[in-house]
Amino acid sequence: MAIEYSEVVRPDDTEKAQSTITVGFFPDDRRPWAVDLGGRCPRCGHDQPESRHWLVAVAGASKFSQTQREQAEAEFAELDIDLSSGDESFDLRCGCSEKHAHRPHGKSGCGAAYRVRVVWAP
Ligand SMILES: [Zn+2]
Ligand SMILES: [Zn+2]
Question: Is residue 34 part of a domain?
């Protein structure tokens, strides 16, 4: 039985999220432009749709060729934007596609809201 829908924020969910949420870096983990979060909800345990969180605004970056990527990285270096290390927190809400009882119309997931901290360094 799936747990009931609830938007009550529990510190436990944020704590657990550090191990249930998977972290990926785009385009690579050396100098990420974006953080991809996926994995499982810390409360209901259901799969979360992967979400991309941009660290820098680069229009059309996901379709960049290697050359365009190198050009952009050169521009970041000129602007003194250092992406080789960082410490960012992201607020997420469960986006599972399973059914949870008492869920208001138009909402999705189990209602859990949690924060994921992502730290990277060379
Ligand atoms: Zn769920
Ligand atoms: Zn959930």
Answer: yes
Write the pLDDT tens digit of every residue in 46-73: 999 999 999 998 889 989 999 999 999 9
Q: What's the domain count of the chain? A: 1
pLDDT in tens, 3-42: 999 999 999 999 999 999 999 999 999 999 999 999 999 9
> How many angstroms separate the alpha carbon of residue 23 from the centre of ligand 1?
19
**Cβ count near 96 (within 10 Å):** 20
CA of 37 from ligand 1 middle (Å) equals: 16
- Tokens standing for residue 122: 């060379």
Phi, psi angles (nearest 5°) of residue 13: -65, -40
Helices (H), the chain: 11-20, 66-78
CA of 117 to the centre of ligand 2 (A): 18
- Rounded distance from Cα 105 to ligand 2 centre (Å): 16
Structural domain for 102, as ranges: 11-120
Residue 4, domain member (yes or no): no
